[in-house]
């Protein structure tokens, strides 16, 4: 797995890339001239403080959102130029793990994992069953196949969602905050799965997270976003040594720094003394 | 004063926006319907969801509406010495008005809220987004089957309501209050036309389309939060009720 | 997949129930003796007074509904009501000297046209006029007639008494 400074390189090496992307919602600027490259075969981490639009980034890659300017390139093709059919074809080669799993609540575990297969492929039932069971086996939940979604714990739900994300053997896996709200054991399990799946299946993974310590254990390259731009990129080791105070505050989890502890407020003594200024 | 005017124009604009949105939505739903009907399995599940599961409430309410109609009708007609007209009066009012309207309101309350909250919840838990990413069109997989299920179920529910209600009228009128059974049915037969039955069924279908559309629209476009789903559910019932009654007037005027 | 079979069965039952209800409504509570407009012919009758007769009122012969009143108009020259009767084509042998009179169903019921057959060998054809008619009985006229005849009887019985 070639590691190294993840500067935007030739697209042939990248399974996905953003070039000079601008994106705003309701006038609020989310991204400004964003340049990101996801190298083939690597686990790429996208990190940053809450609210920097990391989920939006994933939606730009899947084509659920369109950039205002710039290019989003997936598998060498500009996402904006794809027809609906081509877009759907592209999505079949991707898998996405949502923050809460996003399993379909009226289906059981087996049917959830089988869902993409049933919708897109006409397989004999026996073959389908074997594929589903093998994916569940890969995430360690083959025995839970008959459980209903409501019976799953958070960690288990996420693993089922992961099995579903890989059931069609995608080329690119997108993870949206996969560690959020998990206990340490489940977190360790998911971490291990992300790395082993990436290597065993020969795919590329993008992990959006702010669990710095966890993702640093398995990422090949990382980007830190803040204020709608990339403030740092590189291997986890490089980022730990990064001179920028923003990066430093983020990587070390400092309470105050460039991202201020205090929400903007008027002068404190002045507000206390001056009662005519209402709250 | 100006503030009030501004608010009014704001509300008007929002109302028009929503009206436009739901019309476009309706167009999309209709466009996808033929394809969805091919996946009959999904539609059957939704007919079960909206229709079969509403049977208990429809039949119970139908029975009691019929019984009340029998009581009130008998009392009213007795003042004019025309108790034998009970069957006629009950049948006509049920067929043309009470049946379709009450069924639609009950449907909106039971099935409409179920549809809205199901879709709203799917929206709030990213299930719809997940489907999009899995290259499955949520409209086709989840929305249109529910719409079609409701449209198929409503006229059937209306017919069942009316039939059970008539039974209720008979129960009170004939068994309880002594109206002659023979004249009860024969007078009814004499006065009720096929056109009246058609009127009721047309209303049933129209209300079914309206209420199902409103329910799936509100659910699909709910804000992805817990309050958003609750709000969508409430709006479904309120808007369905108003639209049903407005359509009722329009249809009645057209068909008379 | 057991659950989906149960759903199928329940849905099937529901749909069956629904159609049964529709069938019940259509057959058991309508007077399906009549699907007008398919095959029917028209007769015209003139009346001095149609009382409460309305368009759509039944036309019956011996109590059996054979048609409906299609329309009611007024002729300014004849000063009479012109009633168009639409008769089901099945009943095409009504003697053309039959009379079409306006009766009342029940004491306070709606009014209808009753046809009493005559003796002619020829039958009415489409567009014929009915010659023999009897106007609607208006309640006020009936009452005043009764009162008038009562007053007459009283005078007769009073007169002989006065003569004694």
Low-pLDDT residue spans of chain A: 1-9
Shape of chain C: elongated
- Indicate the mean pLDDT of chain C: 80
- Count of runs of 4 or more consecutive helical residues of chain A: 10
Number of strand segments of chain C: 8
Which quaternary structure do these chains form? Answer: heterotrimer
What does this protein structure show overall?
The complex is a heterotrimer of chains A (279), B (256) and C (164). Chain A is an alpha/beta fold and 279 residues long. Chain A has a domain at 7-93 and 201-279: Rossmann fold (3-Layer(aba) Sandwich). Chain A is 36% helix and 23% strand. In chain A, the strands form two sheets. Chain A has a six-stranded mixed β-sheet with strand order 6-7-8-3-9-10, with helices on both faces. Chain B is an all-alpha fold. Chain B has one domain (39-255). In chain B, 88% of the residues lie in helices and 0% in strands. Chain B contains nine helices and no strands. The model of chain B has no long low-confidence stretch (mean pLDDT 91). Chain C is an alpha/beta fold and 164 residues long. Chain C has two domains: 1-30; 40-143, no CATH class. Chain C contains two helices and eight strands, in the order H-E-E-E-E-E-E-E-E-H. Chain C has an eight-stranded mixed β-sheet with strand order 7-1-4-3-2-6-5-8, with no helix packed on it. The longest helix of chain C has 27 residues, at 2-28. Chain C is elongated. The model of chain C has no long low-confidence stretch (mean pLDDT 80). Chains in contact: A-B, B-C. Chain B binds chain C through residues 41, 44-45, 47-48, 51-52, 55, 80-82, 91, 95, 152-153, 155-157, 159-160, 162-164, 166, 185, 188-194, 196-197, 200-201, and chain C through 4, 7-8, 10-11, 13-15, 17-19, 21-22, 24-26, 28-32, 35, 107-108.
